[in-house]
Specification:
15 strands; 2 domains; 40% helix; alpha/beta; single chain; 12 helices; Rossmann fold; 6-stranded mixed beta sheet; 4-stranded mixed beta sheet
């Protein structure tokens, strides 16, 4: 199997030098990228075009010439300079609003996700340029999607040369530059260090179907999925719509299924042991939990009484055990459709043993909060 090709991605604001400085550091490591992708704003794109990609004066072409590299070996052109856009499709000029920040976060996450799909690509993401919020989004996106071998780095440049408008990398033949303090410095003294930034790779712990949608939805879903694995899942229950919400998703149940589920939650607060149908719906247990104990979840009196009536109707029906099994199956099917696998596994009604089958949920009343209306 051939080695994966390195794809470098960078953020560039008004200092496109970070691209060639990182490229120089990678050249010293012997790991030149096959492609360079720059994500930037409208003013940043203009800077990249003028400072790096001008066919006659561009620092990228100058770097390749200085170090004997065929520039065609590295795909870097205006087609790999990606303009970030606002929610209504206009080029981002600067990140000044919450909506612009959210839109940029979505675009950065999607870009990293699309790269990470390809097993033939090794991602090298640079945090050296762009606004602080952009670098955070990029780093977090790599944490969500990054694989073994993907890198997150920052380039450190000697103080006299950092951000200097005429410095893009140390050339083979040194030259003198004048700093803002009217000080003359030689590029022979410039030092560039590439620092690896450790990051937690979450993709192996978060189901793939959680990592979709907007950046904020992915973060919320990942948080809930990890909480589910660690036992810290939180559940919201809406009695007006008979809806369960967790991990940024929601699941609408039939009224009887909703009553049954909350009953099992209350039972879990009494005993962690699964119980058979007849013990679950035994009159003393139902009277002990409904409606008074149910109010501790946040249910109002009339809501608790209505759900208790539905539970009693299930218990007293002629085919109560069969109806109970059917209700359990419908609840689990709805949960399985609505939630990521790791979350669904924590929420679903467990069936244990045979003759009799016993039932329980893995979440107790302390993790459930009653809400009303849209989240």
């Amino acid at each position: 199997m051939s080695e994966p090709r390195t794809v470098m991605m960078a953020l560039a604001g008004l200092t496109p030098q970070v691209v060639t400085e990182t490229l120089y550091a990678l050249w010293r490591e012997g790991d030149l990228p096959a492609e360079i992708h720059v994500l930037t704003t409208l003013p940043g794109r203009q800077k990249v075009r003028e400072a790096l990609l001008d066919p006659h004066r561009g620092a990228f072409y100058r770097f390749c010439s200085d170090y004997g590299i065929d520039h065609r070996r590295i795909r870097f052109d205006l087609g790999t300079v990606h303009l970030l856009v606002t929610p209504d499709g206009r080029p981002v000029e600067d990140l000044r609003t919450a909506r612009e920040n959210a839109a940029v976060a979505d675009q950065l996450a999607k870009f990293v996700r699309d790269l990470a799909i390809d097993p033939g690509v090794r991602i090298h993401a640079s945090l050296a340029g762009g606004r602080k919020t952009m670098t955070y989004y990029l780093g977090y996106a790599l944490s969500l999607f990054g694989r073994p071998g993907d890198r997150l780095t920052h380039v450190l440049v000697s103080e006299d040369f950092e951000g200097h408008p005429e410095f893009f990398y140390p050339p083979p033949r040194s030259m003198e530059l004048r700093t803002g303090a009217d000080k003359r410095v030689s590029t022979a003294d410039a030092r560039i260090d590439l620092v690896d930034i450790p990051f937690v790779r979450l993709r192996e712990f978060v189901p793939a179907n959680v990592l979709r949608g907007s950046f904020s939805e992915m973060v919320s879903g990942a948080e809930q999925a990890l909480a589910a694995r660690c036992g810290g899942l939180r559940l919201e229950a809406d009695p007006a719509t008979h809806t369960l919400r967790a991990a940024g998703r929601e699941c609408r149940l039939r009224p009887q299924g909703f009553a049954l589920y909350l009953h099992l939650v209350l039972v879990a607060g009494e005993t962690p042991e699964p119980l058979p149908f007849l013990e679950l719906v035994a009159e003393p247990r139902v009277e002990a939990l409904w409606p008074d104990r149910a109010r501790t979840l946040g249910l109002r009196g009339e809501e608790a009484r209505d759900l208790a009536d539905r539970l009693e109707a299930l218990a007293l029906s002629k085919k109560g055990d069969r109806n109970f099994v059917s209700a359990v199956s419908k609840v689990n099917a709805a949960i399985g459709r609505a939630f990521p696998p790791a979350v669904a596994a924590r929420l679903e009604i467990r069936r244990v043993g045979r003759s009799p089958v016993r039932y329980a949920v893995g979440i107790g009343p302390e993790a459930v909060r009653v809400v009303r209306g849209a989240p």
